[in-house]
Amino acid sequence: QERRPREESTKMIAGGRNGVRAVAGSIRASAMRFRAGDTMAARPAFSAALPVVAHKGGAHKGAGGVSGGRRQPLGAATGGAGGLAGSTRHNSAANGSVVRTNWTREEIQEIYDRPLMSLILEAAAVHGRHFNPREVQKSTLLSIKTGGCPETCTYCSQSSSWSKETGLKAEKLMDLDSVFQMALRAKESGSTRFCMGAAWRGPSQVGPKQFERVLDMVSKVRGLGMEVCTTLGMLTKEQAEKLKVAGLSCYNHNVDTSPEYYPKVTSSRNYEDRLDTLEKVRDAGIGVCSGGIIGMGEAPEDRVGMLHTLATLPAHPESVPINTLVAVEGTPMATEGIQAPTALELVRCVATARIVMPESMVRLSAGRNGLSYAEQCLCFLAGANSIFAGDTLLTTPNVEVDDDAKMFEALGLVIKPAFDGTNPSFEIPKERQESIELAGLRLKPCGAAKATAAATAN
Question: What distance in Å separates the CA atoms of residue 283 and residue 275, rounded to the nearest whole number?
Fold first, then answer.
């Protein structure tokens, strides 16, 4: 496994900025006919130009087809995964790629352990069959309720268990108008998804009034034409259903790591609690956003275990955030002297996630501010197609908006539109409309975003 210093991983792109431009040119070339208005069916088979590569271990059963011990691009017309009835499906719009939910842990480990360059090429091929490789979604994450969380996640600065050590004070839930104004600014800066996080064990912890306010936030932001995501902790069936009615697009609930390593992450809940909430979210018809964190002292096998958990859910998460630990002073993990993962380890995780969950958005999340343009470029080439924009992620620093704009220009990236550009209609539910009005904030049922913003400004 590659464990070079971060500086060396940048040097592998020859010529620094020139190297970035070179890889950017590769992304542009891979896009080919990807232009506004192109359909998925019209997209080129990106993998056609890629060589079939051998990998250690000889023939690999079920990971996309085998011919004479040589791995073919995932989804090739061979006898690999295609015969696994009931747990695979073909996406005709993606040139016959196979989406599987019956991966074995050994199969994912074998993919994760492949030579890095071969792994990146494979992931780029898969990515090009399912997405426009130039498109990257910008998302904004806002902490609507900071600190005072009763959970004991040892990586998190918001736990009340070590608030004295971190110096983070508990704050009240933000008011509706303040959140709406932040969403407006996020939309103006290019974000197409707005995510709201509350430091709760779950809505049941705080009672109905605060949860009702969050529902109003969801509806009002959704009225801007943005995708809306929340992370509020564990949910009941009824709470998930209310979020769906309010207009929630996606719900974030990370599994964090493997089932085996999870007890070292927190003692206030178990792994099944996470999976139970994900099931409730899916049953309510809400998109699932679930990923993990690398750099918490886990072994590579734990990273594989996390990806295996996600890739074998009844349906793959709509979004898979890959975080690298940002060790906040005062948290237990910051005092353990854990070695941070290299950029190439992050690339390896991104590429593996892309191969085993080909239709999911793979999001570069916490820790991105420590990456160079070249390192982020490798992540995008390996299949990442979403980032968190803005200078803060909950309580940790992030890349500034202007710097991201420069990177997008350097790499030839474009902003992925909300809802893949389909612009689905949305009408704020009557109950939410009445609640918003009671709060003294009137909002048109579902006008254009510009009209809404202008009405608010006036």
Answer: 12
Choose among 366, 396, 332, 340: nearest CA to 163.
332
* Per-residue pLDDT reduced to its tens digit, 350-382: 999 999 999 999 999 988 988 999 999 999 999
CA dist list (Å): 312 to 100, 156, 305, 316, 365: 8, 27, 11, 7, 22
Closest CA to 338 of 347, 349, 326: 326
Q: What pLDDT shows up at residue 235? A: 97
Q: State the pLDDT at residue 447.
A: 47
CB neighbour burial string for 379-391, b if at least 16 within 10 angstroms, e if fewer: bbbbbbbbbbbbe
Q: Hunting for tokens 């019956």 — which residue is that? A: 102
Distance between CA atoms of 394 and 66, rounded to whole angstroms?
Answer: 45
This prediction's pTM? 0.77
Task: Kindly list the catalytic residues.
Answer: 149, 153, 156, 195, 229, 289, 363
Q: What are phi and psi of 325, to 5 degrees?
A: -60, 130
Rounded CA gap, 293 and 426, in Å? Answer: 34
What average pLDDT values come out for the chain (458 residues) when binned by 10 residues? 42 43 49 41 35 34 32 32 42 58 98 98 97 96 89 79 80 94 94 95 91 97 97 96 98 97 91 96 98 95 98 98 88 80 97 98 92 96 92 57 89 96 93 88 47 44
* 131 Cβ contact list (under 8 Å, min separation 6): 385
Contact 213, 196 (CB under 8 A): no
User: Helix or strand or coil: residue 47?
Assistant: helix
Give the 3-state secondary structure of residue 175: coil
Residue with tokens 């539910």, as numbered in its chain: 429
